[in-house]
């Protein structure tokens, strides 16, 4: 593959590692098919996440990555440790190009996609990006299919895989994260909920809502048949008070759940004022 600019002194390089570990790996190595499938999934997810870091755009095709390239590092004899080199020539649209911001972005994106929902970014650049929580919600959903493939080795005997930066761990993947990323099919039954909108992106349509029946905040996105004339209600509810119930909505939605049955997001079918006189 030709290098983007030809002069590596003018670009930024960041190292990542994938470490497959556990008794089975130590005894036999990594199963060829399961390991290759897992690495393919991680490769897709890493390219999608890096593209989002570079451009601020969330795409579903790993081949669409712009402004950076990712390479295999030289393999190490006797270990299942894969070096990945990310080379950036273009300045990222989302954050600064500094290594701390890149690794923080990767940790935040993959942690949230794997179900570590309490993970908070540590660098100012990524903290600023995370103010709009719907960005990482949408990125998590986009990474889901890739991460399902990435967990194949875990589903077939590997104890854990870690995504690492030089000298430290970023994210650990194991059976628990596999249960999170392996989402059940969307429940065809539309349920009625009440609550407040806490975040809403009018461009993407993605948001977050405090759902009283579930006693938690969940990401949501409008379904294909959600009425366009109801989007104004989502904005209206955004300025309410979650504790007092001010500006609450009734909304009808189907749930998407993890393999364990934990609700992950809602697909909105319709909404209305909880109090018709509001």
List the helices and strands and how they pair.
Blueprint: E1 12-21, H1 23-28, H2 32-55, E2 68-72, E3 81-88, H3 99-113, H4 124-129, H5 133-150, H6 152-155, E4 160-165, E5 168-173, H7 175-181, E6 191-200, E7 207-211, E8 216-222, H8 231-238, E9 249-257, E10 263-273
Parallel strand pairs: 8-10
Antiparallel strand pairs: 1-3, 1-4, 2-3, 4-5, 6-7, 6-9, 7-8, 9-10
Explain this structure to me?
- The protein is an alpha+beta fold.
- 32% of the residues lie in helices and 28% in strands.
- The protein has two domains: 10-181, no CATH class; 191-273, Beta Barrel (OB fold (Dihydrolipoamide Acetyltransferase, E2P)), CATH 2.40.50.320.
- It has helices at residues 23-28, 32-55, 99-113, 124-129, 133-150, 152-155, 175-181, 231-238, and strands at 12-21, 68-72, 81-88, 160-165, 168-173, 191-200, 207-211, 216-222, 249-257, 263-273.
- The protein has a five-stranded antiparallel beta sheet.
- β6 and β7 (207-211) form a beta hairpin.
- α2 (32-55) crosses α3 (99-113) and α2 packs antiparallel against α5 (133-150).
- The chain is globular, with a radius of gyration of 20 Å.
- Residues 16-176 form the DUF7946 domain.
Count of helical stretches: 8
Q: Give the overall average pLDDT.
A: 85
What's the main sheet like? 5 strands, antiparallel
Secondary-structure-based class equals alpha+beta
Q: How many β strands by DSSP?
A: 10
Radius of gyration of CA atoms, rounded to a whole number: 20 Å
Question: Which spans have pLDDT < 50 for at least 5 consecutive residues?
Answer: 1-9
Shape, please? globular
Pfam families: DUF7946
Protein name: DUF7946 domain-containing protein
InterPro entries: DUF7946
């Amino acid at each position: 593959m030709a290098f983007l600019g030809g002069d590596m002194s003018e670009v930024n390089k960041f190292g990542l590692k994938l470490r497959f570990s556990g008794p089975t790996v130590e005894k036999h190595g990594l199963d060829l098919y399961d390991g290759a499938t897992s690495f393919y999934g991680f490769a897709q997810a890493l390219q999608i996440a890096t593209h989002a870091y570079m451009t601020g755009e969330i795409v579903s095709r790993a081949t669409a990555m712009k402004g950076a390239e990712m390479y295999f590092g030289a393999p190490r004899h006797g270990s299942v440790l894969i070096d990945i080199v990310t080379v950036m020539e273009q300045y990222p649209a989302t954050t600064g190009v500094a290594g701390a911001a890149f690794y923080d972005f990767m940790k935040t994106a993959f942690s949230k996609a794997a179900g570590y929902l309490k993970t908070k970014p540590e660098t100012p650049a990524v903290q600023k990006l995370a103010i709009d929580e719907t960005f990482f919600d949408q990125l998590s959903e986009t990474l889901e299919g890739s991460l399902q493939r990435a967990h194949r080795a875990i589903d077939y005997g590997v104890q854990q895989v870690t995504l690492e930066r030089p000298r430290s761990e970023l994210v650990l993947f194991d059976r628990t994260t596999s249960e999170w990323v392996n989402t059940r099919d969307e429940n065809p039954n539309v349920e009625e909920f009440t609550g407040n909108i806490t975040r809403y992106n009018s461009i993407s349509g993605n948001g977050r809502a405090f759902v009283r029946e579930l006693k938690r905040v969940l990401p949501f996105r409008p379904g294909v048949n959600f009425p366009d004339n109801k989007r104004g209600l989502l904005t209206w509810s955004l300025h309410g008070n979650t504790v007092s119930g001010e500006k609450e909505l009734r909304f009808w939605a189907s749930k998407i759940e993890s393999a364990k049955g934990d609700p992950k997001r809602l697909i909105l079918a319709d909404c209305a004022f909880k109090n018709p006189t509001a």
